[in-house]
Structure formats: structure tokens, C-alpha cells
Protein: OPT oligopeptide transporter
Organism: Gloeophyllum trabeum
Amino acid sequence: MALADDIPTLNRRSHAQEGDSFDEKKSSQASVVKDVKDAYSDLEKTEVLEIPPEETEAVVHDAADIATQILHTDDDPTLPAMTFRFWFLGLGLATFGSVLSEIYWWKPQNATVSALFQLIISYVLGRAMAQFIPTKGWFRYLNPGPFNIKEHACIVIFSSTASTTADAISIISTLDLFYGVKLHPAVAIFQTLSSQLLGYGFAGILRVLLVFPTYALYPATVPQVNLLQSMHTGNYLSKKKMRFFWIVFTAIFCWEIIPTWMFPLLTAFSIVCLADHGKHDFVRNFFGGGSSNEGIGFFSFGFDWTLISQGNPLYWPLQTQISAYLGMFGGYILLTSAYYSDLWSGKSLGLPWMSQSLFYANGTTYDQTTILNDKQEFDPEKYAQVGQPWLTTTYGLSLLCYNLAVGASFSHVLVWHWKELKAAFSGFKFLRNVRDVDDPHFAKMKVYPEVPQLWYISILLGSFAVGCGTLYTHTNYLPGWSMLVFVIISFVITTFLGFVTAVTGFSQPTQGLVQLIAAYVHPGKPVANMYAKLYGYSTGYQALYLLQDLKLGQYCKIPPRATFTAQIAGTVVGSIMNYVLMKSIISAHRAELVDPIGTRLWSGWHAQSFNTQAITWGALAKQMYSPHSTYFWIPMAILIGFLTPFVFFGLHKVFGKKTGFFKYIIIPVVANYLGYLPYSVNGQWWTCYVIGIASQWWARTRRPRWFKKYNYLMSAALDGGSQIIFFILNFAVFGASGSGVDFPSWWGNPSASSGLSVDRCKATVG
């Protein structure tokens, strides 16, 4: 709201009465000017606004409200984006973020590098460069003026694009850890680049469908844009909001040291575990959640924002969160009842409660090399001697639920978004640079030249050629025709799942579907299955990240070609640095990474899960997933999931038009979260429930003014502060730079020899 709207009394004296003399009118106008100046001066001193009653503020209901009421559409086309500051800070933070993301990938916590983390750092450094670099003479090319929102947003895109671990690195590390195959560095890097850049071609083609329209909200970008606009708008309200931001940022920065290092019990505070004193396995399995692969965390409350932020409670739409919570509550019942009823013999065989590894029937870790020949392909004779591998019950159910969600994602989009699909693809509109999209932010972008579709198509074809070259020249595991088939599959999947991500903020993994197809195309070949997953799934998943960054560029009014440049640069830097650090970590921590449980500091659960899926789908699909086999219902879940949204759509047509209940439930999200718990640490989810309801229901509907001004800004502050201190602690005390420094053991930080996990449940035996 503008300042003038906050001081309505000033307008009453804006004109002299009709019968006044000229001098009287002049005197009256001078008085008004003086009153205005005094009012603004008082605001700067007292920082008090005459705020209308809370109930007069409109409630935010949908994407259009967020796009117009929380994010403003103002733009100054004269602001430069591709500045020296952009290149200097973008390169530095991209290198930093790619290193940090690779470290996180090998941690038991499922942490990621937040773009908000890099946004804050770049703001501080960008402001410093603008202040201290001279602006005259030759230096004006290095410092073109105040640090502006366009170059700032470009730095965020550059660095955040580099700050995710590419799935190609997952394959390279899995080959190294579990197959003894070490790719040549050049092959590894070019393979990573090709898989990443294929996603750019997808993103460019799908812009008209998944970026330009208003319904393509991408909720995760809202806190970023809200913070960017607050930082670079020089009015009073922005100053007040920035003061709020720095207070919250500082508080969480100081707080996070306590639960993450000094008092880890607070990462998963469970009254039941405290009462049990570590005596019973069931209590650990059901209520525990503070350590990697410990338990599913029922009624466990965490106070570590690094973990809480995984649930996105402050910015995911309420519809998405309710669907996720319903799925997770069902998961508590499903996982526990299945394990203790001995589904798939998981309990009777003595398999761990939670693990992503494969096991022999005696409960020991399955050695996959004993069933593969020298070409890393399935050997039936060796398999007959070794026998079937077994999945833990919880992990098998997780795969089943993910497949339910995959099938449901396609039919959900067909049922609820058919009109948008038809509009985008009719007449091949997506191949042209359209200008008629009805969106207030897109309307402002028309002053800038678009990126021609030819650029994206060229990248698509070029990266495909490079990928084929690496496969044929050095890693002959996947033929070129098969790569083409899976790239086409990936594009189709991206189109459908992009809708779910753009509208709800939820990204549905689809690797199960892709690996099922690859199992029939390349039976008995686990490495080929991994590469099919790379080009049939990972390229599309990368495209979703790129589409989100394109939306960030639209919200911040960045020239499209500047966004394009930032994304390409970030991809190149990230691919190189991911590979370098991955080799370093594997060299230093190989034993911890292949251990099925891992340690508190290092865990290879990502790579183990990647490898398990490759072996089960690639080498043993017939033995494990065919009819009458143990895990047949895992692939069948895709078909069941596909049919489920049609059932809910029919119920909505018959019963739900008045309440909207059946339309409100997002089936892909519910199904996904049914199987979301058997991974890593789970002590934070009940805290997410409380915060999510408080933010997206109570604050949004009962305190709409506060919600609009501060909710997304608070999310940015909490994420930024916790990410920065977590990075410092990783290098200072968690062993990222070498050896770790353990905080002294005490009641809130049990030692490993005590037989207790960090939440004082019975420790998991590795």
C-alpha cells in the first residue's frame, strides 16, 4: 500500500475553497506542502502508520492474488543486468554453492542449498561493491551505479543453477562406489553438461505453457521475489520490512547452533522416546526420527529450521500442505502395519526397519557384483547360486507409493488442466514466441527481446549429440536410439508434471516409471537402466528447476536473454565443481558411504538408493517385479495411481461441487507422501504441520495484512540464516573440511557408546 493511502487526511486540504483569493489559494497550497513534509518526517522518526482495520484487508486466495497483491509489477527497463558485479559475484557464489550442494548430498540430512542463502550473501557483497568501487572514469564499467534488482536476481539464478547436484554425478559416483568403474574426467563432465543442458531445450519449448501464464505461480519463488523487491525498493515500508528480515535472520542464525551441534535432541524431541529410555525397537521405529534411517517420527517435534524447511510450511499453498499431511498420516499407519504384519518378509528376515540398500535373506548387505558379469550385466547362473535380493518393507512401500503418485500425476493434469494443455499445444503455439498471454508480469516483459526458440532447440540438439558421443566413445552402456526414446519420454513427462509443480510447488519424482520402461527395453543391464533414468527422468527434473528460474526472471523483469546467459553459465560451473568435489569426498570417506546405515556426519544413502533401483529394475526386474514375484505390486501401482484421480473427479462431479473437498485433495501429493518417510531424518514433520497451518490458514485468513507483508519475508529470513550457519558449522565442526569436532556428550547429546540415538531412542544397529 502506498504511503499516500496510509494518510487519507492529507487530501482534505489539497485544494483551496472555490471563493478564495489567489493569495489565499497559494497560502493554502503552501500549507499542504508543509503538512506533507511534516507527515513524512514524522514517519521517518516514529515509524508509525495509520493502518486501516485488519478486517478491511483482502485475503489472498489464489495465484493471481499472490502475483498482484504480494509481488508488485513495477519495472525500470534502464537498469543494467549483465554487469561486472553480476559476473564477479555470480561466478564466486556459483562455485561456492556447487561445492556446498555436493557436500550436502553426502550428508544424512536431506539438506539443499537454498537460493535465499545466496540471495542474502550477494546482496551484502553487491552493496559493498557499489559503495567502494569508484564510479568515474574507467571504473564506471565496473560500477554502473547502485546495486539493482535485475543484476541481483541474475546472480541468484547463476548461483542457484550451479547449486544442485546433477543426477549424472549420481551415476558417476555410483559406478565408482559400487561397480569399480571410474570414468575419465572429461567424459564425466561432458556427460553431466549434456544431461543438464537437455533440460534447457525442454524449458524453452514449454515457456508458453509453464512460465508466462499467471497460474504458473511456482510458490518457491515467491519468498525470493518478495525479498528482492523489499531490498531494492527504497520506500518506508520496505525499510521496515528489511528491519524485520534482519531481526529474524540474526535470531535463527544464533539459534541453529544449538539444535544442530550443542543440543541435537531438539532436532527430534519425542516425549515417548524420552519415557522409553531406549528400551524398545518399536518405540524407535515409530516415534524416533533424530538420526539417519532411525524411525518415522510420529509425534516428534523438531526445532531445527534446516530440517523444518524441507516441508516448505511458510510458502507451499494450503492445498498442497493438507494433501501432503494427509498422505503422511496415512504413511504412519501403512508403513508400521505392513512391517509388523511381515509384508514381504521384512521383519521375519531381520531386515532393518529403514534402509535403501539391498539385503540377503540373512539380513546382510547384498553384494551386487556376485550376480553381474564383466560387462556389468545380469548373469543368470551366478544369480541361481546367490538368490533373490530383498528390500526393506518400508523402502519397498515407498517405491510403491511413488509409483502411485507418478500414475496419478498424469491423470490429475488431464482431469483438472485439460483446457490449459489444449490451449498451449493447439496449432503448435509452444514453438512460437507468443505475446498474447494475459499476465500482468508478462505484459511488462514485452519491452525486452525474447530468446528465440531456435536457441533452445539448438541447445537441445547439441547437448543430445554430446551425450551420444560420450555414451558411444567411452561408456557404451546405452545406444543412441535408446537415448532418443528416453529423451522424448522425458519431454512428455515434463509437460505433465510441470503443471503440478507450477501450480502446487510440488515436484513428483518419476524415476520408477522410467526405470520400469528401461527394464523392458534393456533387460538385465543395471548401468543402462541408470543412464535411461538420466535421460528419461533427470533431464526433465532439471527442466523444472529451469522453468522456475525463468518465472523468477519474469517476476523480477529480467531481460530474457540475461536469464538465459545466467542459467547457462551456472550449469557449466556447477557441472565442473560437482565432479571435482565428488571425487574428493569419495576418496576420503568411501567406507562410510557404502555402509547401509552411515554415520551422523557422512552417509551414502542417495547413492545407495540410486544403485538399489538400478539393480532391482535394471538387472532383476523379471525376478523381482514380474507377475507372481515378490514385489509385483510396485510397478502395478503406476496403473492404480493413474485411475485414482478419475475416481475423485467423478466424486467431485456427484458430491463435491458445493464443498469442493474432492477437488481440494491433490492425489499425486497424497500418494507421494504415503511413502515419503523411509528416508533419512524424520523428526521435524509435526513442527511443519503446526507452522504450515498457522501460516497458510490462520495468518492468511485472520491476519491478511501481516501475511502479505511478512510471511514470505520471514520464510526467506529463516532459510537464509539457517543455511549460512549450517554451512559454517559443516566446515567448522561437522567434518566437511576434514575431521569433525564433536560437542561434549551430555543428556541432550548422547554419545554413540550410550546405545541411544540423538532423540534418546534406542540406537539403530548398523
Summary: The CA atoms of residues 648 and 654 lie 10 Å apart. The longest helix spans residues 560-594. Residues 1-55 have pLDDT under 50 and may be disordered.
